[in-house]
């Protein structure tokens, strides 16, 4: 029997079996899938156990302050330089990178789409990615892209890394296995996972579905981190121990494989004779993680009024300007509505930040109809929006007893930069041309005489 501390460090040989995880956010982890594979007391021994190669993967400049300094040490069958090398150009025409400002037929306005249609042919996760919006500039490491994905085949001998940013993956239908260099994560709808910039991975399907669908936030900027809680204190919102980082697991596979990369917006590929997921042991704090949104502990209005949605921030990617996120990942989880003498749904508003929303399950309280699981909406910089007419009517006239908003999970990628539509998004067949009509019932009630109308 392994001692508990040894179990936490233990990884998994051969890449078979269910994933194991270590709890915590931003921890310095250590894990090995073969006993003794992880050097102790130093990073770079003259010779590593099992003939492994030592390699450092840096997620921050070497000299970044401690709070943001991230790197991991990987002990692997071959160094990555034998997995990559000179690439040849390939194309993924639907995965776009900022700056990507295109002329399209759609006039400016509030936009909403139904879910991506299921793929007509077989395609894997990479092939199924469709960029909806881009913002900022990946070349200056600022901004983000909002993607939707729909796929129905596994990545088997294809591996990928994104040099342009980290990937926050939000499944909506169908669980996925994300096998990264540092280990593997099984991610079901209601869970999210994050693959760090530059880390190789592949995605395979879990369970039986017709389509595996979801959303991705590609963050070009500083890494997502937990927001400060201010006066909320040391608990609630997303708690660090609910984040799970995989234990080491590797594939020892000597068959033809392909490594693909997105680098400054263009795609490249190299053929190799083995799996690049050959990390037997690792330690450090630059690591993938997953998180179950159901473990988010919301804090909200317990007397009156509707607070800003920043109270529901799961992860924030700072921009360098205080309080001005490059991108926030915000959720609208199940919660009790108890506010007295209050219009409880979101107020009508205009916002300097740009809001891309998706729905994982259930219904969103500001939109009674039309915003469906797998659907998307875009309320761009300074464009007015808020509850639809029927939601307004119900919320202004309903009895204000405590009500539980249950079985609901919407989210928002909210960025400081305007989000530019791709041609794909502008022409997507599930675009709802009548979206604006959801507000058309908001009639004038003012007649110049005092009194509640
Ligand atoms: O527009 C939206 O539906 C998202 C949102 C929710 C909320 O409660 C307050 C502001 C906001 O942008
Ligand atoms: Fe909004």
Automatic annotation (TrEMBL):
E.C. number: 1.13.11.5
Organism placement in taxonomy: Bacteria, Pseudomonadati, Pseudomonadota, Alphaproteobacteria, Hyphomicrobiales
Superkingdom: Bacteria
Listed cofactors: Fe cation
Subunit details: Hexamer; dimer of trimers.
Protein name per its UniProtKB record: Homogentisate 1,2-dioxygenase
Gene that encodes the chain: hmgA
InterPro entries: HgmA_C (IPR046451), HgmA_N (IPR046452), Homogentis_dOase (IPR005708), Homogentis_dOase_bac (IPR022950), RmlC-like_jellyroll (IPR014710), RmlC_Cupin_sf (IPR011051)
Gene Ontology terms: biological process: L-phenylalanine catabolic process; L-tyrosine catabolic process
